[in-house]
Amino acid sequence: MFSLLAAGAEVGTVNPWVAVAYLVAGVLFILALRGLSSPATSRAGNRFGMLGMLIAVVTTLVTHDIANIVEIGVAIFIGGAFGLVVARRIAMTQMPELVAAFHSLVGLAAVLVGWAAYLNPGAFGLLVPMDTIGTDYSLPMQISAVSKIEMGLGIAIGAITFSGSVIAFAKLSGKMSGAPILLPMRHVINLGTLVAIIVLTALFAMATGPEETFPLIVGLTVLAFAIGFLLIIPIGGADMPVVVSMLNSYSGWAAAAMGFTLGNTAMIITGALVGSSGAILSYIMCRAMNRSFISVIAGGFGAEDGAQGGGGGEQRPYKSGSAEDAAFMLEQAEKVIVIPGYGMAVAQAQHALREMTDILEEKGVDVKFAIHPVAGRMPGHMNVLLAEANVSYDKVFELEDINSEFAQADVAFIIGANDVVNPAAKTDKSSPIYGMPVFDVDKAKQVFFIKRSMGGVGYAGVDNDVFYMDQTMMLLSDAKKMVEEIVKSLD
């Protein structure tokens, strides 16, 4: 999408072959989304998306009057090389913040394209005769009111996407605390800023001369950047997967708005697809957490002033065990359900975990994986890690498909997860995660819980009663090291 935003505008009458090419690109983007809906077809989905982007970019370059194709080629080469290097070097644990960083680039591109269209509207085909939009005939040509509304919306959404993604990146990468930052009267400030952006957009559309429009578009841009920061800083860590999905949606709408400004069909189609799919995913994730989308934007988990993180109270008794203890009980089990979380991603334990499950299956143990919709730091994070370790897709189940099976499970094997198995979400109305559907691990006959130490808590910052249950054995160690020791004990 960033490439589309940087591409040229489609001015004047559309060549039918150009329309067909953009239509084919749009169909490929739809097939890409369809493919990405399942791990089994995700590779094909990625290929469809890459092919669609190639067709869209090449069509734009071939059918437009390019001022300097060499400069554009150099820019594409630099961007492609940068993306290739980042993709090869980035660890899977850093994927969420990388996605947030790329969203920020999409938003910034929308802002820059909007400003370019404002500063040089003639090059974008946005000028119309003054007598079609007003009564001041001192200037022969003017940007139409409709184009200015599209331009203002694109700049506003792009700026919100940029600044919001920067905060999300900082929180996800640990450069900024994941705890909510609560400003006094934050809801009033946010609402007032949003109203001011809407008013400035309307005034910008009605203004006629550069001396009137320039301060309005500057104010619009500044306030949009500000509201992006204000919307994300009060959101706690447990809601970050929804934030990533939401920012993805924003980036799509920013591209679609710029597509209308530039008259570029491919940008409109792609932006609408990304925007709508991101919005639908955000809704699905909020429903999975029993949260309303508005409540996430307004504060998120852990945003209540009285919410307390775990680890500050009296130490409660718990049972700890060794890899040998876990290995003995695992190979005696008939059914094991594995619940992976972000701790597995940090330790890069997915390959050792797959090796452990392979050995257990050879011994006749039925092993399944349970994935929570918000496990990790972005949608599908755990699915990608397990696919990377070649875990069969038919062994991976979503919460609603496997939660009823914990009552028949001999072992619930929790590796690096926390909030998604915390029973406080069902019982403690004062908990910041209350209402979020969680795995019923307390119904399993035995629970193994791998975490580095008892001092840590989940991303939501609350203690977990599962640590202290009679059937729970805490395996306190690095996740990868512990699983590797279990594998040695199983051999």
Keywords:
single chain, 491 residues, alpha/beta, Rossmann fold, 2 domains, 6-stranded parallel beta sheet, two-stranded antiparallel ribbon, 18 helices, 8 strands, disordered N terminus
Polypeptide structure, described:
The protein has helices at 2-6, 16-36, 42-63, 69-89, 95-119, 145-172, 186-206, 210-232, 240-262, 265-288, 293-298, 323-332, 342-347, 350-362, 381-388, 399-402, 424-427, 479-490; strands at residues 127-129, 141-143, 335-340, 366-371, 396-398, 411-415, 446-451, 472-476. Helices cover 56% and strands 8% of the residues. With 491 residues, it is an alpha/beta fold. The relative contact order is 0.10. The protein has two domains: 2-298, no CATH class; 323-490, TPP-binding domain (Rossmann fold, 3-Layer(aba) Sandwich). The model is unreliable at 1-12 and 305-313 (pLDDT under 50).
Task: Give a nutshell description of this structure.
By secondary structure, this protein is an alpha/beta fold. The protein is built from 18 helices and eight strands.
